[in-house]
Design a protein that fits this description.
Radius of gyration: 22 Å
CATH class: Mainly Alpha
Number of helices: 23
CATH superfamily: Amino acid/polyamine transporter I
Helix content: over 70%
Structural class: mainly alpha
CATH topology: Amino acid/polyamine transporter I
Shape: globular
Length: 562
């Protein structure tokens, strides 16, 4: 099997999904109204609620959801062969992620820009808000701690990516200032900024930057984790127009160029796939394909975190309700393309089958080297275009770091929103203070990173990594349940969200039970307790949703008609 044929199939599937299925959802299910006043205008404050061009907003949404996870998940899932991974990414993107991301964005727009947790209070009941917020808090805590570790690992492994990444920040801030404070048109400064950023790839390859080895007895990676968490806290406090929007717009183009080069390298070089379609020699320490495939590949097929971005930041910036299809569904499609690229890089980026088999000789090897395998494989594709190997791996590593960092500070901003909602729910004004909430988020993430595993400071977030996939997918299932109830209350077809909910809920609950049993058998009481608590919260919330059907609500109670 040749890689270019799989790439062509993926392009065709995603094109048909956006062209026909997303249009059906927009017109027949969500019934988008171009005249509806969105929260971006209704509550415009210049910080979080900012009406934004749909291309810029798509850049923010795309780069916020397309972090390291759609690379790590498919790269790990390759241990079962490329066939199951590819099928789940294609089907999951078109019929699961698309309606999930699109739907949560639409539901938030129609509920004053509230998060899925706050919407659950109106749709399911008061207890649902607390349950949702607890699950979301756990998920965001894991996202922040884990992604900081991923970035620190990449900075340490690929020091050529350090300089370009940090210089991207003032470039983005300059673009934001020129566009929003000097009324420049976006195109010129964006193109100049992108050209400067691309030139920095060469500069970074020639000027690798490294921290001193283990300063103060703390591992270098741990210092990068602390620096990234501090950066994420500061970035999450800034107005979205100053850094988040322009940087995400730049990153979207960087990812677009990166994906274009990766796929061009596939079509030019036509590397043969050395990985098996179905791996008949799965290592003994690997978990079963069913149901673990559907939680190992979360982002890239369907992800609960996407619903947090849709209802947390993107809904507060949407100019027109009709833009929700472009931002939400097409954003998930873009991430599907990234996941397919990860599959191709780890299926055809190895020189031989023996090299592939060595990398996937154990579950620990596959899960611990997912990002580096993608960077190395992607760099190989770029050499087909005549780029030197160092320049190719530098470019790919910058791309991955940029999007992991984007997800990090978006997630920290979302966690601040969650604390504010808790403050409103339980009348705790201190949690609604933007500065206090930002500091609290940073302290919680840093505490997890540095104290959860005293023997490995900075990498404590990785202790919770086994729970990340299942918690993420459980939240996706709950969001689909929420959408199903909203559609049912408003007399719209709900089968298109109900079937994905039933599938995701079944697979992820099954996977969580397996994980909790494994943690208990290994004597890991911390993971057993946290996993068990999240499982109980999930089942409880599903039962609350079933009970909510008995108390049928009027359409005006779940959707803003104005």
């Amino acid at each position: 099997m040749t890689s270019w044929l799989l790439a062509l199939i993926a392009f065709a599937v995603f094109f048909l999904g956006y062209r026909f299925y997303s249009k059906f959802l927009a017109e027949k299910i969500f019934r988008l109204d171009p005249d509806f006043q969105t929260p971006a205008y209704r509550f415009q404050d210049g910080v979080d609620f900012v009406p934004t061009n749909r291309f810029v907003l798509w850049g923010h949404h795309f780069t916020s959801v397309a972090g390291a996870a759609p690379i790590i998940g498919p790269a790990i899932a390759m241990i079962w062969g490329w066939g199951p991974a590819l099928v789940w990414v294609l089907v999951g993107t078109v019929f699961f992620a698309g309606i999930h991301d699109f739907g949560t964005l639409w539901a938030s727009i129609r509920n004053k820009g509230r998060s899925v947790g706050a919407i659950a209070r109106e749709v399911i009941g008061p207890r649902a808000l607390t349950l949702f917020l607890l699950i979301i808090f756990f998920l965001l805590l894991m996202v922040n701690a884990v992604f900081a570790v991923a970035i620190g690992t990449l900075f340490t492994a690929f020091p050529s990516s350090v300089l370009p990444y940090w210089l991207q920040i003032p470039i983005a801030m300059a673009i934001g200032y020129l566009v929003y404070r000097r009324a420049w048109r976006l195109l010129a400064p964006a193109l100049i900024g992108l050209a400067v950023l691309l030139s920095l790839v060469w500069v970074g390859a020639q000027t690798p930057l490294e921290l001193p080895e283990d300063p103060a007895g703390i591992p270098t990676t741990a210092w990068w984790v602390f620096i990234m968490l501090a950066y994420g806290a500061i970035a999450s406090r800034l107005p979205v127009w100053l850094l988040l929007q322009p940087r995400d717009f730049l990153n979207a183009h960087l990812l677009f160029i990166g994906l274009a080069l990766l796929y061009l390298g596939v079509f030019v070089g036509r590397p043969e796939i050395v990985a098996p379609m179905f791996n008949s020699n799965v290592p003994a320490d690997a978990p079963p394909l069913l149901p673990l495939l559907f939680v190992t590949i979360a982002c890239g097929a369907i992800s609960g975190f996407h619903g947090l971005v849709s209802s947390g930041t993107s809904s507060k910036q949407l100019k027109k309700e009709t833009d929700a299809r472009f931002v939400g569904y097409l954003g998930s499609t873009g991430e599907g393309l990234l996941a397919v690229a990860a599959i191709l890089a780890t299926a055809a980026g190895f020189a031989t089958f023996d090299a592939w088999s060595e990398h996937y000789s154990s579950w620990a090897s596959a899960s611990g080297q997912g990002i580096t395998a993608f960077v190395s494989g992607g760099g190989t594709f770029l050499t087909n275009l005549g780029l030197p190997a160092l320049l190719g791996t530098t470019f790919i590593s910058i791309m991955v770091v940029a999007f992991a960092a984007t997800t990090l500070d978006t997630s920290m901003r979302l966690q601040r929103f969650i604390l504010a909602e808790v403050g409103r729910q339980y009348r705790l004004p201190v949690l609604q203070n933007i500065n206090f909430a930002t500091v609290l988020v940073f302290v919680c993430c840093a505490a997890l990173a540095f104290f959860a595993d005293p023997d490995n400071p900075g990498a404590g977030g990785m202790i919770l990594w086994p729970l990340f996939g299942t918690t993420n997918q459980l939240l996706a299932g709950l969001s689909l349940l929420l959408l199903s109830l909203i559609l049912w209350y408003t007399g719209r077809p709900f089968i298109y969200t109900l079937i994905p909910f039933l599938f995701v809920a079944t697979m992820t609950t099954w996977a969580m039970i397996i994980n909790v049993g494994t943690f208990f058998a290994d004597g890991n009481m911390m993971l057993t307790g946290i996993g068990g608590l999240i499982l109980i919260l999930n089942i409880w919330l599903i039962l609350e949703g079933v009970l909510a059907v008995r108390h049928h609500r009027e359409p005006s109670q779940v959707l803003d008609p104005d």
